[in-house]
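Form 7-S
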Amino acid sequence: MKIPRKLGLSFLAVIASAAVVMLVFFTSIMMIARSTERNNHSRDVYAKALTLETSILRQNSQFRGFLVTGDPTYLKSYDEGRQEFDETAAALAEMLTVQSEKEQLEEARRETLAWRRNWGDRLIAKVKAGDRDAAQEEVRGAGQKVLVSKVALPLRALRATETEAMEANSAAQASAITTALIALAIGGVALIGIAIALSVMLSRQIARPISALTRAMADLAAGRHDIAVDAAGRSDELGDMARAVLVFRDTAAAKVADDRDRAAAMTAIGGGLRSLSQADLTARVADVPDAFRTLSDDFNNATSSLSRVLGDVRGSVDSIKLNSNEISQAAMDLAERTEREAAALQQSSSALDEVTRSIRDGAGAATGASSAMADTRTEAERGDAIVRQAIDAMHGIERASNEIAEIISLIDGIAFQTNLLALNAGVEAARAGEAGKGFAVVASEVRALAQRSADAATEVKNKVQSASTHVQSGVQLVGQTGQALARIIERVASVGGSIDAIARQSDHQATSLGQINVAIAEMDAMTQQNAAMVEQTSAAARQLVSEAEALAGSVATFAIDGSAASNVAKLTPRKQQRRWVAPPEPAPRRAVNASDDWDAF
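Output:
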């Protein structure tokens, strides 16, 4: 049986025992709950039955108090007891489920209604009508009939029934509690016993074999390959583990044998690598186990291939030396030609610099003349503006003179009207006789004053007309001056435009020559860079020759097979010839390029 199945059955037994205990305990709890619920119901029924009995007794006592005293307070308490009885009876009727109890309640309600109808309500109505003595006499003569015993007896029987039910439920509840405690105790003991039995069984079936396997694996890890595994015949997981340990044991024994063969092969290959580290490529590996035969063949083939490669390298090194010498000679020739080109570019740059400077000087002079003409034009335009302002001022004076003339004409008209009024006033004063003599004197004075005003207005008008004539003449002269200044401004603008065109053309030519000079300077810089690159190429070629010689010396230290040596033809490099180049004549002026440092070059 597999271990998971054993464990499953063990836990199933524990779970089944626990389930039985829980079932018994749950059943007891449910019985206790039902008993408690019935007890609560019986207690509520008992309380309401007691309330009904109290209410009917209250009605009876308050009824008697009202008959004796006639006090309405007793009547109020009677009504409250009546309402309480009806509400409690209705609530109790909904709670009762047993037919006998319902009949007892219904009997109590019938007797209550009969008592109210025959005694309570009827006699109270009689007392309210004023016949209290007759009502009292009727009660005294009724004897036991007026009592409420017939109502109280069924209610007491109902309470007795509920009391018996509560006692029975309490007994059932106590029995259920006892049963639950017994089931809990027996179930706990049973679970403990089952757990102990299962632990002992699992220890024998699982723990001990696992300990034995652990010791066997520890011995196997320590290097012992003669261990015995007892659990290999089991059919569960421990048997699988034991058989796996046996596989590990056999594999470890095979690995020891492989390690011995590997050590022998590594010794042989190590000897070959030692010879290879000493630059001996003639060494070969032999006498190795069959499992490492492929490795020894690969090593021998690699050594042979390396020997052939080194033989080829020797030949290639000689060719590199020859070609490097040729490259160095060609680089030196190119350097000579580059020097000549640099000298020619330097002379061209100096000449262009002189031409550019001359054109820039001419452009500067033209620019100065243009600036002077612009200043002249500005002054002329300013004078023209002043003349225009003077013309505007003269026109303003002319307008003011015309306005003054109009005002004087108005004053002259007023003086004429005043004179007429004074004349009319004198005529009216003459008609008035002695009464108008004073008014005639005033009219005479007003007339004289009006005459003097008219004379003064005429004189001022003549002077204003003379001033207007002079102002018009000044306006014409100022206008002619403005026209002359406008013609001067046009001539100055034409001359300034010509000078500006000359300056722009000169500046354009200077810019073009500057660009040509920059291009030549860039060509000069590129030629300088080419010369530097040629020098670097020559140095690299010389370095390559040196490195090739060093490589040839390193390759010569290896001992190679005679069949792998390459027969390299010995090539004699061309003798280097250095041609002398005359230095360029110094230019009168250098180009304005700060990077043309040929002295450093």
